[in-house]
Amino acid sequence: MAEAIAAVGFVAAIIQISSFAKKLVDRCKEFHSRSKDVPKGFSAISIQLPLIISSLDQIRGQAQSGSLSEDSLVSLQPVIDACHGDVKHLEGILNKVLPAPNASSWDRNTLALKSLRYEAEVNKSIASLGSHLQNLIFFQTSITASRVLLQLGSNNNPREVSLSEIQNQ
Prior knowledge:
single chain, 169 residues, 0% strand
């Protein structure tokens, strides 16, 4: 019972992060389409966050299906919490520097210049998210490798397995 409750909270946290992150990506894309001089850190948001969203969605699916142990959920929770903190931090910065869709060109240009002030903070959050993404990818890789090894170990006839066989499992 406790495991099911932990999984529900875990899944809810991932859904919330994904929702915030998708909104940020959309806002950054809109910012790019309306302004020529966008700092690199803001461009990185549109690249990095979709990868985080995809990884989190895969993990969410595994948690919902019950294929993650309670230990895995507990181990992943700090990474999920850190992602949430970084996404919320980026959201706060973007709220300060991204123009409204109906903003005048003067306001857009003024905010584009203001965004330069926050570029170091954005880069720091993007680097942190990159580290979290590496952790999520490592987790997914280790889970996949464990499952493949279990399947191979259950076979009474150990044999070499081709890469295509592993990918098809």
